[in-house]
Design goal:
This protein has 602 residues and is an alpha+beta fold. The chain contains 10 helices and 26 strands. The N terminus is likely disordered.
């Protein structure tokens, strides 16, 4: 039966079943899978930054704050003139500001999937926004998030705000509690997150009603609840390493904010006044998080990252041109031009992260390997992201750059400005790829990606000379355009088969007994030591290992398998068994856990 994988706190203690031989093997008698090397891994990054005064500590805390549809130009530090964002601007002045950071997609669901899993939109599980009543995107058992990586090292993990993946029920692989987050409060599905005055929100596996909002009432503003729970999470875990993924829905449409402040009398349409207030509310939330970290004495051991999931929107009457929301960039949400995918990114940790700017092209797929690297946790070797840890530690010369960045768009909805920017092609499938300063954008004739290359419209831009993508060079430089198209073709996989990581569990019934087989897979790029697998069964059940449960070493790409014979108690009903795999990675303890449900005997 399939297992439900959960990653728990790092500890060297195994669960209590004795036994003898672990069958350590590379997988069905074959050699261990070789470690994948990212293209361009030896290239170095340039940055204009002042080195940090002190390094980030071992196992720092992390707060990852992701705005919803915040444009590149909507923060003061990125050129905004009409909307106040003093708190984020102050963090940027003290920390590191990225000028060339990228969301993985121009719309929410695929962007957030890639952010969580470190895979670009040619490899990720969720590659499109939901379509139709049953089109909700979902993460899979094979997905591995940055929360799962940090749980293995003993981090307390929480997501507060928008998860954005279905289905809307607990106890399934796409629920945040199944993907490494111990604590969840907010919106489970994509469409529910469009409501600022919801009648309920999720708290872990339960829906919590908000009676004051019933019948369309607007009494309780969800961003206020998100703020309360986020600050409470920091208070609760101040004395242990933690990861907080804070995902408010601000400033996504509709433009609703009860805190209009100085914008109440601005000479703009109401939707624009409310949108400006939403951006400032997001800024205020970031400031409150920074203030709470400082008050708790945790700021100097916490890395705060502030970013957005895609470019600015124009829904609900909001005019992004009024605010110059994309700054100097062309396009909006849904476009693969820079305005749709280039996003703000600021890294802040007082005196630990270098201050200044970096022009390193940085996709948000880099978050998973970066957080794992800084936490001393293993990460899958089949990721598209690269670690930024050397850059954040101040050693800019050692930070690798990507050979190229790939982006995909297949979206059924179009807004007027986005469609105009695309030349009426916003509902057509499109791809983009940046390599160095060259960027290609191409549009299929419809929604079919498999049509021949000669039926696509291809454009080519030099971002160093033309960041606004005004001058198409495809006709003048056909060889460059063709080279980038070939890279696009190579970046897409219809099904991206993962190499495996952590513990999986299989249960087979053998008459009155069970055979339980656990497999621990080292999908990272470094060997693990002191490997142990243990099985926990309900009280009154008996388990006997069919071999040893320990191994001295597990090579990169290799796996260990152990089987147990399990005898349920007489008359036992439905229950579950749990396997815990522990090891040491670079001298630090890591632990992974998987559970499987066992139905009652017939």
């Amino acid at each position: 039966m399939p297992s439900r994988r959960r990653f728990l706190a790092g500890s060297a203690a195994a669960l209590g079943v004795g036994g003898a031989a672990v069958a350590c093997r590379a997988g069905d008698g074959e050699a261990a899978t070789p470690v994948r090397r990212q293209p361009g891994q030896g290239q170095k990054v340039k940055a204009s930054a002042v080195p940090a005064m002190q390094p980030l500590p071992a196992r720092p805390n992390f707060v990852v704050i992701v705005a919803d549809d915040l444009g590149y130009g909507e923060l003061g530090v990125y050129g905004q003139k009409l909307i106040d964002t003093p708190r984020i601007d102050a963090l940027a002045a003290e920390g590191l500001r990225f000028t060339d950071a990228y969301a993985a997609a121009p719309v929410c669901a695929p962007s957030r999937c890639s952010l969580l899993t470190g895979l670009h939109s040619g490899h990720s599980t969720v590659r499109e926004n939901p379509r139709g009543p049953s089109g909700q995107g979902a993460l899979a058992e094979s997905d591995f998030t940055f929360a799962e990586a940090l749980r293995a090292r003993g981090y307390r993990t929480g997501i507060i705000g928008k998860w954005g993946f279905g289905p809307e029920r607990a106890g399934q692989p796409s629920h945040p509690n199944s993907r490494g987050f111990e604590e969840f409060y907010g919106y489970l599905t994509h469409r529910h997150a469009h409501e600022y005055y919801p009648e309920y929100l999720w708290h872990n596996g339960s829906r919590e009603d908000i009676p004051a909002n019933r019948g369309g009432a607007r009494a309780v503003y969800a961003p206020d609840l998100v703020e309360q729970h986020a600050l409470a999470f920091l208070d609760a875990h101040q004395d242990e390493p933690f990861l907080l993924y804070l995902a408010p829905t601000l400033p996504h449409a509709p433009s609703r904010d009860p805190h209009l402040g100085r914008y109440a009398d601005a000479p703009w349409p109401r939707a624009d006044r409310a949108h400006a207030a939403q951006v400032t509310s997001f800024d205020t939330l970031v400031g409150k998080v920074a203030d709470r970290l400082t008050a708790l004495g945790a700021a100097d051991r916490t890395l705060v990252l502030v970013t957005s999931d895609n470019g600015p929107h124009e829904e609900g009457g909001t005019d992004p041109e009024l605010f110059d929301a994309g700054g100097p960039l062309r396009g909006y949400k849904r476009n693969l031009y820079e305005g749709g995918i280039r996003v703000p990114l600021i890294a802040w940790s007082p005196e630990s992260v270098p201050s200044g700017t970096t022009d390193r092209p940085t996709p948000l797929t880099d978050l998973l390997p970066t957080l794992a690297d800084l936490a001393g946790a293993p990460a899958p070797s089949d990721l598209d992201g690269l670690s930024l840890a050397p850059l954040l530690r101040g050693a800019t010369a050692d930070t690798a750059r990507h050979d190229h960045l790939y982006f995909y768009r297949n979206h059924s909805e179009a807004t007027p400005r986005a469609d105009a920017v695309d030349g009426g092609r916003a509902r057509r499938l499109a791809e983009a790829l940046r390599r160095g300063d060259l960027k290609a954008v191409r549009f299929a004739p419809g929604r079919d990606r498999d049509v021949p290359d000669d039926r696509w419209d291809v454009e080519l831009y030099d971002l160093a000379k033309d960041p606004g993508e005004e001058h198409d060079l495809a006709a003048a430089r056909p060889a460059d355009a063709d080279a980038l198209v070939r890279l696009m073709r190579g970046s897409w996989a219809d099904g991206y088969e993962r190499e495996g990581f952590g513990v999986t569990l299989r249960v087979e019934r053998e008459q009155s007994r069970l055979r339980v087989t656990a497999t621990l897979v080292n999908g990272s790029s470094r060997p693990w030591a002191a490997v142990r697998l243990g099985l926990a069964v309900p009280d009154g059940w008996r388990a006997r290992a069919l071999g040893a449960v320990t191994a001295d070493r597990l090579a990169a790409g290799a796996r260990c398998a152990v089987s147990w014979t399990v005898t349920p108690a007489v008359g036992a009903g439905a229950a579950s068994v749990t396997c815990r795999g522990t090891a040491r990675y670079a001298g630090a303890a890591v632990a992974y856990e998987a559970s499987a449900d066992v139905p009652a005997a017939a």
